[in-house]
Amino acid sequence: MPSEIRHDWRREELLALFDLPLPELLYRAASVHREHFDPAQVQVSTLLSVKTGGCPEDCGYCPQAQRYHTGVQATKLMDTEQVLEKARQAKAAGASRFCMGAAWRSPKDRDIPKVAAMIAGVKALGLETCATLGMLSPEQARALREAGLDYYNHNLDTAPEFYGDVIHTRDYQDRLDTLGHVRDAGLKTCCGGIVGMGETREQRAGLLQALANLPAHPDSVPINRLVQVPGTPLAGTAELDPFEFVRTIAVARIAMPRSMVRLSAGRESMSDELQAMCFMAGANSIFYGEQLLTTANPAAERDQALFARLGLYAMPLAVCEDHHGTSTDGGATVHAHIIEPLSA
Hints:
- The chain is α/β, with parallel strands linked by helices and 344 residues long.
- The protein has helices spanning 11-18, 22-36, 80-92, 112-124, 138-147, 160-163, 172-184, 201-212, 242-255, 272-280, 300-310, 317-324, and strands at 41-51, 97-102, 128-132, 151-153, 188-190, 193-195, 220-225, 260-263, 285-287, 291-292, 295-296, 313-314.
- α1 (11-18) crosses α8 (201-212) and α3 (80-92) runs parallel beside α4.
């Protein structure tokens, strides 16, 4: 039967999917994937930190929080031309989307014109644009949309009941409010979470339940595997079983059939075999390049070799546009993604 787009998932339904024998779960997820996507196509993005470190929040996973001693040096917002040069390099390397992240709790109004200039310049290069800047007001969301931004990232991070164990400087409702402002402004959403932070399977199901039951499914769902950075409170957390990570990808695909499910933070430490299983489970997007904000990512050559071994290829921009539509001003509809968990 065709997969149903639902916004009323119950926790026990998602847990029942997690509990399936892995071959059965992969079969169901792959079947849903094929309904909506070419399973051989993978969307490729590049992410740049345009303002690193110095964040006042206390997210337990984040090396950019100023209160933790992680060796990350705070920087000022990059100049527009520096950003555009990085975007040109990303396009030359084969990326179709260019994502910009800034380590802010929320941008100040004076920051918006500077970011808007970056967005306009990147879009003029023919790349899809995306951004993650922290919490936004309704006015800021509208200003970014008017500058040409199509997608905005703001992660839920984890299940509502586990959130307070990880973050204390922002409420879950704050995240939901920003997502509402973004949707109201006409921007697409990129929203996912982080697994391997010490949560239970039920709480992993709770994260997916919260995502799937949003008023609109996120157009991109980044699934981050915790990168344990020395100096952060979550360093030393027991690592998540790789098969449990695959199960999380598969359940996300089933619960949000038309979303891009992204292999995000933590991919640098994944074996080729684990990544292959994730693609079989319905993942169809990655970040490309050696750096994800402040943590390592697989080299482009390794990704190219893996794609060749698996018979995968980068999703053409025209396919992305066909799947997601076009923006009201005639520009490409695009994605905003965050993969190393920023305080966004």
